[in-house]
Amino acid sequence: MPVIRTLQSLIAIALLLGVTSAWSGEVRSLRVWAGPDSTRAVLDLDQKVDYRLFTLDDPARVVIDIDRVSVERALSLDEEHSGVIRRVRHGVRDGDNLRVVLDLEDQARPQSFLLAPAGEYGHRLVVDLYPEDAQSPQERVREAVEPAMDGERDMIVAIDAGHGGEDPGAIGPSGTYEKTVVLALSRELQAQINEEPGMRAVLIRTGDYYIPLEERYERARKARADLFLSIHADAFRDFRVRGSSVYVLSRRGASSEAARRLANSENRSDLVGGVKLDREDDVLSSVLLDLSQNVAMEYSTEAAEAILGQLARVGKQHRERVERANFVVLRSPDVPSVLVEVGFISNPSDEANLKTGSHRRQVAGAIVNGVRRHFFDTAPHGTWIAANRAGSRHIVERGDTLGVIAQRYRTSVSRIRQANDIEGDTIHPGAVLVIPAGS
Ligand SMILES: [Zn+2]
C-alpha cells in the first residue's frame, strides 16, 4: 500500500508539473528545402507534438497550431532557398500553444506529417507545399523526354543522385556530404550521356531536396527509362576501406552480410529524408511484379557487370563482383536498375577525389562506357543504337569518309576495310558497308 500511495502522489506531482511549463516542448529550428515540384518546411522539435494545420486565402498562408510548445530561437528563413514561402511568423496562443504562420507567394496544397528521430535529427514536423493544379512531377518528366515520333529513339538513362535535402547521406571526415558529391557526379554523367549518339539522360533529382525512394524509380518508369542508375558514396567505420562497388536488387537475401547492411542503411534514407509512411501499397500484384522483375533483373545484372568492368579500369574496387541486396530504390518492376557506390566518402583519399571535377569525369566516363556496352548488346528494335550497332549496315552518304563512319560506329577504319574488302580510302555514295564489331 505505501508503495502505491507514493506512486499516486508522484503521478499527481507529475500531472501538476505537466500543467506548467515542465512538460512543454520546444521548436528548435526551421529548415526549408525548395525543389522544382514542391517546397518542404521542417520544424525541428524536442519531442512528439499534437498539431493542427489549415490554409487561409488572400494572402495565401498556412497556419500551424502546435500544442504546448514554445520557440527556442526566433524562426527565420533563408530567402534564397525558401521556395513558395515568402515569410514566417509565429506567436504564443492560448497561453502555452504556438502558432506558426507561413506566408506564401502563391496558393499551395499542404501535406504534413510527423517524423520520429532518425540520423542526426530528432522529432520533426514536415510540411510539404505543392503548387495548386500543377503538373505532377511524372508529367513533367514525361514531357521532357517525349520521344520524337519519326526515326529511331534514344535509349534513356534515368540518373538518381542519392539522398538530398534533409538527408545528407554519409558524411566524409572533412565534412563532405554524400548528397552533394553524388549530385555533382550525376550531373557529369548526364552531360556525358547526352553527348553519346543514341542515348539521353534524365536526372531524377536536380537540386538539394529529398525525393522518397519509391518515387525515384516511379519517375524513371514514367520517363520510360531503359536503365535506372542510382549514384551513391559508401561509408564505413574503418576509414581505410575504399573503392567502388556495384549492386543490383535481390528480394530474397543478400549476396553478403556487408551488402545487406548497406541496403539497410540506404533504405533508412526515407526515415531521415522524410516520407509520410502510411502511403498506399503498390497497385501491382506480387505475381506480375515477379514476372517482369525477372526480365528486368537479367538486364540489371548485365548492365551492372558492364559498369563494374569499366570502373575497374579507372580506380580501386571495393568489390570485384556485382553484389545483391534488397535496396528499395532498385525495386522498379520493369526498368533495369543498378546502384553504384562510387567510392567510400569515409576514406580521406576517396573523399578528396570525389570532390574534384577531374576524378568525377573519369568515374562518369567509366560508367558511360559500361552503359554504352550494355546498350549496344540489348537496345531493342526502333532505337538508334539497334540501327547503328555492329552487324548493321551503313549506306554511304555524300561527304562520308571511312574515318567518320568508323567513329560513328565505334569501330576502326582497318576493320571496316577488312569487312568490306576495301583497299585505300575511296568509298562511293550509295554503297552499302557492313559494320564489323569491335575497334
Ligand atoms: Zn547513399
Short description:
The protein has about 450 residues and is α/β, with parallel strands linked by helices.
Q: What value does the average pLDDT take?
A: 85
Q: What hetero molecules are in the model?
A: zinc ion
Radius of gyration: 27 Å
The total of helices stands at: 12
Number of DSSP E strands: 17
Q: Can you list the strand order of the major beta sheet?
A: 11-10-12-15-13-14
Helix content range: 25-40%
- Topology order in helix (H) and strand (E) letters: HEEEEEEEEEHEHEHEEHHHEEHHHEHHE
Major sheet summary line: 6 strands, mixed
Distance between the termini: 91 Å
Structural class: alpha/beta
Characterize the overall form: elongated
Q: Name the beta content range.
A: 15-25%
Provide the low-confidence segments as ranges: 10-22, 279-285
Describe the structure.
- The chain has helices at residues 2-19, 137-145, 178-195, 213-222, 257-267, 269-273, 286-314, 348-354, 357-378, 384-388, 402-408, 413-420; strands at 25-34, 39-45, 51-56, 61-66, 69-71, 85-93, 97-104, 108-115, 123-131, 155-161, 199-203, 227-234, 245-249, 323-325, 337-344, 393-395, 432-434.
- The longest helix has 29 residues, at 286-314.
- The strands form 4 sheets. A 6-stranded mixed sheet has the order 11-10-12-15-13-14, with helices on both faces. The chain has a 5-stranded mixed sheet with strand order 5-1-2-9-8, with no helix packed on it.
- Helix 2 (137-145) packs parallel to helix 4 (213-222) and helix 3 (178-195) crosses helix 9.
- By secondary structure, it is of the alpha/beta class.
- Zinc ion is lined by residues 162-163, 169, 178, 232, 266.
